[in-house]
Amino acid sequence: MSDAPDANHLPPAEEVLDPISADLHSLIAVANGGPLSVAEIEQHLKERGYALLVLFLAAPFLIPNIPGLSTPFGIAIGLIGIAFMLRRRPRLPAFILRKKVEFATLQKVISFAARLMARLERHMKPRMKVLVAGPVMTSLFGLGIVSGGFFLALPLPIPLTNTLPAFSILFLITGLLCRDGLMMLAGHFMGIASWAYLGMWIYFGARLLPWLHARWDALWNWMRHWF
């Protein structure tokens, strides 16, 4: 029996789109007003495959003022991406599985994700299926998820370093679930844009720091001269 994630055994998009929101909303009933651990969320969503779990884990990065989830959720996304690359079932470490999501946060995340899916699904349909089928495309999809998870796990003090990778993951996941190759392409494009954006900051930062250092030295020498 294969130990691979069930991404290659999803039903057609027309049968998947409606249950996505329903499964996410059902987490509210499972929580019953209290917090849920990642282990409980994984257990509830695994019937839809780990792709839906990644969708849930990535959604908080697009919502302001939800602290404390960046590193554990980013690591979890990256580990699930590696499992997709290797076509193995994900195994998340205990410290991530124990992480609790408060009920208020759960409501925000699910409400946001459901609204966003409702908007996206108007434009999604099965197309360019060669980009979402087969072991090579599944591994490439996993690489994109790993890339996004890497960014999300790092608390970088740079604007948009969470937003671009989170959208990349969202597009990749919805492209996979809905067999939409165009959406998958958009996800990979956003992933490449994330690296280009970070590279731009590194490049200009490396040029800016020596200039700032020289200006500081000049100011310090002037202050020493006068004081």
Number of strands: 2
**What general form does the structure show?**
globular
**% residues in beta strands:** under 5%
Q: What is the helix/strand order?
A: HEHHHHEHHHH
End-to-end separation in angstroms reads 78 Å
SS class: mainly alpha
Task: Report on the biggest sheet.
Answer: 2 strands, antiparallel
Helix content: 55-70%
Major sheet strand order: 1-2
Average pLDDT taken over every residue: 79
Q: Write down the Rg.
A: 20 Å
Number of domains: 1
Low-pLDDT segments, ≥5 res: 6-18
Q: How many helical stretches?
A: 9
Defining key terms:
mainly alpha; 69% helix; globular; 227 residues
Description:
This protein has 227 residues and is mainly α. It contains nine helices and two strands; from the N terminus they run H-E-H-H-H-H-E-H-H-H-H. Helix 3 packs antiparallel against helix 4, helix 3 (50-58) runs antiparallel to helix 8 (163-177) and helix 7 packs parallel to helix 9 (181-226). The model is unreliable at 6-18 (pLDDT under 50).
Helix and strand layout, with pairings?
Blueprint: H1 13-31, E1 36-37, H2 38-45, H3 50-58, H4 70-86, H5 94-97, E2 100-101, H6 103-121, H7 135-153, H8 163-177, H9 181-226
Antiparallel strand pairs: 1-2
Helix pairs in contact: 1-6, 3-4, 3-8, 4-7, 7-8, 7-9, 8-9
In short:
This protein is mostly helical and 227 residues long. The protein has nine helices and two strands, in the order αβααααβαααα. It has one domain.
